[in-house]
Amino acid sequence: MEKRLGETRAVVIGAGAGGLAAAIALAARGARVRVLERNPHPGGRLTPIEARGYRFDPAEPFINYPHVLGQLFALADLRLTDFLNFIPVRPTTRLVFPDGQTLDLWRDPHLLAKEVARFSKEDARRIPKFLAEMESFASVVEDHFWGTNGRGWRGPAFLAAHPRSVRHWRKLFSPFSLEHLLRRRFTHDRVRDIFRVLAMRPGGSPRGPAALAFLAGTEIRRGLWYPEGGMQAVLESLVRVATMLGVRFVWNARVENIEVEGDRVRRVSGQGFRPLRADLVVSTADPALTTGRLLSDGEPHKKLATRYRPRKARHSGLLVMLGCSEQFEALGQPETVFVGGNPFEEARQIEKWRVAPSDPTIFVSAPSLLDPSLAPESHHVLRLFAHQPPASNRFVWNEANADAERDRMLRRVEKAGAAGITESIQEEVVMTPPDFARTYGLTDGVLFGPSFSTRRGWMARPGTSVPEIGGLYLAGADTHPGPRLSDVITGGLLVASHAASKTKS
Q1: Among 3, 11, 118, 121, which is 20 to 30 Å from 71 by CA?
Q2: Nearest alpha carbon to residue 107 among 119, 90, 94
Q3: Which of 125-129, 183-187, 420-424, 452-456 has the least mean pLDDT?
Q4: Distance (Å, whole) CA 386 – CA 392
């Protein structure tokens, strides 16, 4: 039986997916929750952009683990199916290589093996075993997150409590890169590209740790799912459930200070609302921003801010959303990835040199294939995304280089078989790292949180709790367990789980 939070006064900063998930999970346990949102509406990146009959989703239109939403709604004794319906994406993704060859990814490992056999029969025999190994690996990582309530690396204590994971731990903190692992496991470069690309999608890279292979493996095994109605339907469902649980929203509220007395949070103040007493505060802002600017002054908090300041290069991206009058055969799948010439070098250019990649991998979603309501009749919506460096003194984003990168993406897609796409564009929305920073309050426009490029980088994300300050929690894409929607929802669940564990029964 879940522990209750009684009359705990909880303040959630931000009404994006992470904030809404935390608010629901806390309210379901009995907390009195207020959500402070700087905009006049909820949603963050879940908020669609509407233009001349087209509806664009800035967030990825597909979710990989719908069951986490089911876990969230179950806390309120509600069934997910009463709110949302998910359509499986089959095949999950089509990879298009620079030479025009294609490879479809399927949830069924045997169907995937048939695809891989066109390139390498030896690798095809290895695929089912490798995917099963990665699924087992993923369950150990999930045990770690839940066993520590998302507080980050707790190695020895976790191993003592979960002895079955000992055999996986050497892999988890392997000194080798993902590229090294793939070269040992598979012989054909096209097969390696499967895992390179899927590791890149959430901000990873072939230069990252070998453990990133589990992200790619589990995405294949668990697939992609489209929520009917798009991300707007997900947002509306979250807001509806939060309202049913008595969560109160304050719009146009700009938080300026999280006040601390002793070693606990006590009050939240700012513009657009009266100061609020709080026993528990959940911030979905950048962890460095939360600890560096929002906490009340004091030398200990300055040291805390230094610990949360990122020290590695991080990823952003260029997002191009198109409303088109035509559908193109080359974009006939809900998810198509145009693989760059060298994904390893692409990651190096972004992470080490912090420049725009010379031949980027382009992720193209066509959600209107599954949901025609996103566009006028006979028209289509496309979402093009390429990883890019964030705004910095090394790469200054401006209109000229944004236009150049946008044109490069369109030329690549046209060359791959979508000739005439530029002429078919009826409406267009382009978002650069400065746009992400301005619209969503993301530091330097960073979309994926801390870099995956170090051996422990992916495990070094800030945990959900700040141990030095009682009652202060972090949620959102910059924290455990990751930046995708299902990960952000899991982060909200972890906040409430940890808060409940600190409450006496």
Answers
A1: 11
A2: 90
A3: 452-456
A4: 18
